[in-house]
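ok trying again, last paste got cut off:
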Amino acid sequence: MSTHQRNKKSKTDPNSKNLHPRNLHVQAYDFPSLIKSYPPLAPYVTTNAHNTLSVDFADSLAVKALNTALLKHHYHIANWDIPEGALCPPIPGRADYIHYIAELLGVSEPPTNVKSIKPTINLLDIGIGANGIYSLLACQIYGWQCVGSDINTHSLENVAAIIASNPTLKGDVKLRTQTDKHHIFDGIIQTGEYFDVSVCNPPFHASSDEALKSNQRKISNLSHHSNEQKSTAAKLNFGGLDAELWCKGGERLFLKKLIKESQMFSTQCRWFTSLVSKIDNVKPAKKLITKLGASDIREIEMKQGNKITRILAWTFM
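nice, full thing came through this time. structure:
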């Protein structure tokens, strides 16, 4: 096994948000341009204590409107929407994952016209969710072909509606239902099929109660910083559907299942990857990957402001 590698930002990096250099969101949001692209964002934009334009990130509707505007303005994805209670992803952070995966695969700068190139990368999006964000960004930034799987049929229906509203996405994102909650790749990867990479954002928590408490802390902190109080309903609807936020055993057990099952499909996917939100889960995951005979393991550190998350990547090839 080759030496473990970790991507780190230079201390002299001028990128104030610490995002990937290719990320379109390295600078502050251009709210006037975003509002021009998506006028319904306007009511949520105000001048904050620093005398700059912003939105109240404790308000789920404001965050959703911002996401819709970002996807429309930067990625030409129209009519993006999620059901009430679905996970509302931070677009800059999700784009970072895709850019780091592109580096892992040896892909150079994004093409200027993704529709003019023949797709060369096949991506498997495990747990695509109702927002479909990784597949949508991978298609629009790099022109990749994506397959998204989920156990929640309502989530898949929502992604299908987004795709139907964007003709340029038709055929680029295929959706598959995972009918067995005990499996991840089995039942999704078909015989003779090959993927260059799989991506995954595992459920963080071990129970719905743990997820709810964490979510309430998050909203409380955001409300404190914005000096606003939000209703209980807004708090409950901010964080995500059950399958998106928690599973029995939490992130550690999910990673264990993901890693074990990846070995079964070691010849059908070049790189398996997953976000790991909790640092304590990295070491046992690496230990299991090594035990199963992976030929290479990478730990890619992503910094978004003061927050640090990690992509764990491994291959058996």
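cool. Residues 208-226 form the longest helix (19 residues). The two ends are 11 Å apart (CA to CA).
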